[in-house]
Amino acid sequence: MNINKMTVTRLKQELTQRGLPTDGVKPILVQRLREAMAWKNSNEAFHSLSAKAATTAQARAEKQVQLKDAQEAARLAQAGAERLTVELAAAENEEREAQAKLKELEPRLFFAPKLPACVLLSIVGQVGKRTGERAACVKREWRGSVEAAKALGMYDVKPPLSVAAGGSMTAVCTAEGELFTFGEGEDGRLGHGGEQNELVPRLVEALTGKTVIGVSAGAIHTAAWTEEGEFFTFGVGVYGVLGHGGEQRELVPRLVEALAGKKVVGVSAGEAHTVVWTEGGELFTFGNGDYGKLGHGGEQDELVPRLVEALLKE
What we know:
Blueprint: H1 8-17, H2 26-105, H3 117-126, H4 129-138, H5 143-151, E1 162-165, E2 169-173, E3 179-183, E4 198-203, E5 212-217, E6 221-226, E7 231-235, E8 250-255, E9 264-269, E10 273-278, E11 283-287, E12 302-307
Antiparallel strand pairs: 1-2, 2-3, 3-4, 5-6, 6-7, 7-8, 9-10, 10-11, 11-12
């Protein structure tokens, strides 16, 4: 903007916009406008430089913090390296001392040709009766330990009477007549009164006092029978697979009342049906009847045990 070439009218307009007086001759007006513009430029420059100075100061402060953090990290790393160096030297020194002591002991080492009696008894007691007797035949000195293991009952281990693997659970009937189940507990198929999973064998307390001698597990249900011939089922009840006259689930073992008076001696639990045979040679089936798998001449479901008449002797 060339102030000297402005007309008086233009000069007054510029001064009016800036709120300055417009009286006087042209040289005075020119001087007044030049001073006003110089003040404005200086003010703008001041604010610009102030903002730049503040930004620069903030950046400098951030760099100082970063530098301090880096120096602290480097100090800690150096201290850690020095500590590890000391520990490594100590470990190497201990290893050298141990090797030296071992070297000194080597000439005095020996192996006893005869095992202590307690150690030998523990060994022959764990290998099993047949293996222990064979070992005694090979080495006569071991006969006393094998006889001692027999006397202590170390070979009297009774295997389970019955084991069943279902779709996602396992059932075990022990020689003592107890039933244990474990695995997926959905819909009560483990018989513990709930639906939680069991990661280790758990006693089915509802059958405490009963002598369980057999168990069978299907995809969705479990069946067990006792020494007295009682028959219990639990789990999912769809299609009448539990034999209680309905399709409701059972969270604990429930006696199948339809077979009361019959002595059950065997059971096979299928995917969605159950087969039971009795001491009298009778065969009962119930559950899903698709494909005629119940043996009654049709494909209808059976909600309670039904005698397979085709197997009856005439």
